[in-house]
Write a structure and sequence with these properties.
Blueprint (H helix, E strand, L loop, with lengths): L2 H12 L3 E6 L4 H4 L4 E3 L1 H10 L5 E5 L2 H10 L5 E3 L15 H15 L3 E6 L4 H9 L3 E3 L4 H11 L2 E5 L2 H10 L7 E5 L4 E3 L9 E4 L4 H4 L3 H10 L4 E4 L5 H6 L2 E2 L2 H10 L5 E5 L2 H10 L4 E4 L14 H13 L10 H17 L1
Parallel strand pairs: 1-2, 1-3, 3-4, 5-6, 5-7, 7-10, 8-10, 11-12, 11-13, 13-14
Antiparallel strand pairs: 8-9
Helix pairs in contact: 1-14, 3-4, 4-15, 6-15
Bound molecules: 1,3-dihydroxyacetonephosphate and iron/sulfur cluster (SF4).
1,3-dihydroxyacetonephosphate binds next to loops.
């Protein structure tokens, strides 16, 4: 029996006790086993709603499994097949750094600040945000969530992705000059407008694969396929978003191409497994990957072998791949997640 056949066999055996979730950035090899495939928002919503599964296997990266553990009941076990699959952007902010930043920005701007953290962050950062009455956010609900934040306090501290923060704030009509930047390494806060005009305080973090898409690549792609539309994920730099025809979350990028007319051409600036799947699912359109380097090595760490190993472990009562968030962190961070879910 092949590894794939064995995975399907265990899935059948465990039935509804098992829920396999896969992020859109996972390889097709993994997606074929998933009960649900989605972006960060959709997967968080599914994890929160499912009270039936005893075992939730998260094919994604560490912060996603942590989020699932926070949102599920105590008896539900969340497992991550590739224990070393982290997210370099989530690792750009920890709680201690966030507390130091909070001291600095509240001293500088006063108390009317609400912290908003991208779901791509550590549980301890979500807990920091929960303690300060803030919320989490994903690319799929960023505009609504930021509107909520700015309706609530004068300024938003947005972490750890400066690009999602800036792109969403620009959508709400906030000029780039009204955004401050906080560097957690040097603890330096920089801005060029008056204190009163600062609306966003952006954490100097980013997703390497989206942040490194260059202007030259966009120009080259446009020259190669002049009648194509360029669409990008909001984790890309604001300058790249300005050069494109549209931007949006993973679900947005999928829907945009799906809804388009046959024969249309699309150049997509995001992770490569997803773009390859969009290409396969839309054979009547021409789909191109904007940057051949858009590979998330961490997402690619999930394999048929480590997924099978996780499932065999469940059968043997071996939960060494379980991801758990301690009680206090979970209690504080669930506040920030629930605020976001109620706004979505
Ligand atoms: P979304 O799933 O929210 O689009 O985020 C993309 C991403 O980078 C996940 O790590
Ligand atoms: Fe993190 Fe970027 Fe990979 Fe998403 S694509 S998991 S943000 S490094």
């Amino acid at each position: 029996m092949t590894s794939s056949e064995r995975i399907f066999e265990i899935k059948k055996q465990l039935g509804e006790d098992l829920l396999i979730l896969a992020h859109h950035y996972q390889r097709d090899e993994i997606v074929q086993f998933a009960d649900a495939v989605g972006d960060s928002l959709k997967l968080a919503q599914i994890a929160e709603k499912n009270k039936r599964a005893k075992y939730i296997v998260f094919c994604g990266v560490h912060f996603m499994a942590e989020t699932a553990d926070i949102l599920t009941d105590d008896g539900q076990i969340v497992l991550l097949p590739a224990l070393d699959a982290g997210c370099p952007m989530a690792d750009m902010a920890d709680r201690q750094q966030a507390e130091i930043c909070w001291d600095i920005v509240t001293k500088e701007f006063g108390e009317s600040i609400v912290p908003i953290t991208y779901i791509n962050s550590k549980a301890e950062v979500k807990a920091f945000v929960g303690v300060h009455d803030g919320t989490t956010v994903t690319s799929g609900n960023a505009k609504k969530v930021l509107e909520w934040g700015l309706g609530f306090k004068d300024k938003v501290l947005f972490l750890p992705d400066q690009n999602l923060g800036m792109n969403t704030a620009v959508d709400l009509g906030i000029p780039v000059e009204h955004m401050a930047m906080y560097d957690p390494k040097t603890q330096k806060l920089t801005y060029s407008c008056s204190k009163e005009d600062v609306k966003m305080i952006l954490w100097d973090g980013y997703c390497c694969l989206h942040h490194s898409i260059t202007a030259e690549l966009v120009e080259k792609a446009r020259k190669a396929v002049p009648d194509a539309k360029v669409i990008v994920h909001p984790e890309c730099r604001h300058e790249r978003v300005k050069m494109s025809d549209g931007k949006g979350s993973t679900e947005f990028l999928i829907k945009e191409v799906k809804a388009a007319q046959s024969g249309t051409k699309w150049i997509i600036g995001t992770e490569s497994n997803l773009v390859e799947r969009i290409k396969k699912d839309n054979p009547d359109k021409s789909v191109y990957l904007l940057d051949p380097h858009s590979i998330c090595t961490n997402m690619n760490k999930t394999s048929t072998e480590n997924l099978l190993d996780t499932l065999e472990g469940i059968l043997k009562g071996d939960f060494s791949k379980q991801i758990t968030v301690d009680k206090q962190t979970a209690e504080d961070s669930v506040k920030s997640l629930n605020t976001m879910l109620s706004l979505s």
